[in-house]
Each structure stands twice: as C-alpha cells, then as structure tokens.
Amino acid sequence: MSKFLIRRIILGICIIILGALVFYAIIRCLPASYIEKMARQFAASTNGRKTYTEWLTELNHVYGMDSGILTGFFRWCANAIRGDFGDSWKYMKPVTEVFRDSIWWSVLMNIITFVLEILICIPLGILAARKQYSKTDYTITVFALACISLPSFYLATLLKYFLSVKLGWFPLYGLTGRLFNSMTPMQQTGDILYHLVLPVLTLAMLSIGGLTRYVRTNMLEVLNADYIRTARAKGLPEKVVINKHAFRNTLIPLVSYMSFLLPNMFGGAMITEEIFQIPGIGRIAYQAMITGDIPFAMFYTVFLMILTQISLIIADIMYAVVDPRVRVN
C-alpha cells in the first residue's frame, strides 16, 4: 500500500504541474486581458501624457507579464512553492485572503446539496430497481433524465421565474435581505438559509438525475446476482436482502462516482452562484477569469487539481474498505 501511495502521489504531482502549465498558457492567450484594460484606462485618464503602448509596456513589466509563457510559469511555480501566490489583480487583495473570504459559502451550499442528494437519490434508485419496468420505475427514470438534461442556467432561470417572480416565495438573488444587519444572530442564520433555498434546489436537481440512474443501474446488477437469489431462497426478509446484502455491494461503484465530491464541494458552482449572485468561490473565480486575473485563476485551478488528485487517492483506498476482495498489486 505504501508503494502504491507513493506512486500515486508522484503521478498526481506530475499531472498537477502539467495541468497548471496548460492552464497558464491558455489564460495568457485569452483576449480578456486585465493589463490591457488598465492600460486603456490609464491612457484615457492621463490626457495623452503616455500612450496606450507605453502604459502597456510599463504595466506588463510591473505585473511580470513581459516574459514568455514558460518563464512566467516557472516564476509563478517558484513563488507558489514558497507559499506566495501573489495579489489578486481584480480584488486588490492577497489571493489566499480572497479565497478564504468566499470558500465557505460554496462549502455550505454543497454540503446541504450533498445531504439532499444522498437522501433522495439512493432511495429513489433502489425503489426504481426493485420495481423494474413498472410505472414507478418509468416515473423515476423520466424525472432523472429531466434533471440530467436541463442546463444549469435554464433550470435556475425557471426556478427564479416560477418560485420568485410568479409565486414570490423566495428572493431572486443575493445571500441576505435588506434588514439583515438589524436581525438577531438566529434570524440572520435563518435569512441566509432562506436565500440559499433556490441555489441549493438548483444544484440538487442537477445532481439527482445522474446519481439516481447510477444507483438504479448498479442495484439491478446486484439484484440479479446468484447470491441475492440464494439469500431469497433461504427465506430472508426482503428488507434484509436489499439493505444488508445488495446495498453494500452497490456502494463499490458509488465510491468511484463520489470520488469527485471533494473538488466539487470546494470548487463551487460558477453558473449557479453567478445567476443567484451568491459570493461563493465559483462566482469569485468566474469574475476573476473573465477579467484576466491570472494570480487568482492560477491559484483556484491548481487548488482544484490538488483536490481532485486527493479525492482519487481516497477513492482507491475506499475501494479496499468497502470491498475486501480488492487488493493493491
């Protein structure tokens, strides 16, 4: 196991470095350049004392963008290894401070979404598998396919239109109401949760479809296995057969499916957070990328790569936990 972990860690580091290089090259080539925007603003505000080209050359030197892509990337790596990720160009604060201020809203949303997803998807998937080809199965399958097919921006817009505009049950956007500062701590918590209902509902519906079908498919494979028929032939109650024998083996492929839970939880939901104007890490990263904020975009991307590699290693270890037959060669 130790040799396997060492190999996986080395491979993960290589993947992170290569992925960071590719992303750095892409973001340097994007047309949305923060430095070019600042150069135009300075050229317009100084009444011609310096031309746009002069400001651009000076700002490229100040921000370290006057070197090639490889040189700039290795310079960023050298600073990152020392823990210096620079200051965000857009937010005018250290990258780590911007990240710390916004990450927990995304974590809160994703924890609530994950709990709802597990509570809804696993029972629905098992029920659909137990009643294969029945009306219940078809209803659950159609619902799951609808959730998979709807784009996030379209679903969020529908929920806002019907539940906010038409019915007036929930606020259109934002994290707090107008009277938030005058509320008690308990009321403030309730106000935040109230504003998170629609974003969480959007994220949950987008996730329910895939996991429900995944649970149904794997449960069908398990229910048709010989040992399940043997358990039923022995006269075991159906609940014991489903919950003790079938469901445990269904968890094995679910470990792989849930291996990306960690990066998703800390990665935020860019489109959903942007539509509902939730100041989570997804919206902050989206705003940084479209304005060409290279320091924050690099930190955010590499952070997600690291979380992805960690989650994959955890998934490999969990395979051995849920399935004793799995052995690392």
Structure at a glance:
This protein has 329 residues and is an all-alpha fold. 76% of the residues lie in helices and 0% in strands. The chain has helices spanning 2-29, 34-45, 52-62, 69-81, 95-130, 135-149, 152-166, 185-195, 197-223, 226-233, 238-257, 261-267, 270-276, 281-290, 294-322.
Structural class: mainly alpha
What is the number of helices?
Answer: 15
Portion in beta strands: under 5%
Helix content: over 70%
* Largest sheet composition: none
What's the overall average pLDDT, rounded? 83
Keywords:
329 residues, mainly alpha, MetI-like fold, 2 domains
Structural description of this entry:
By secondary structure, the protein is mainly alpha-helical. It folds into 2 domains: 31-84, no CATH class; 95-322, Orthogonal Bundle (MetI-like fold). It is built from 15 helices and no strands. Helix 7 runs parallel beside helix 13. It is globular, with a radius of gyration of 25 Å. The chain starts with a helix and ends in a 7-residue tail after the last helix. The model has no long low-confidence stretch (mean pLDDT 83).
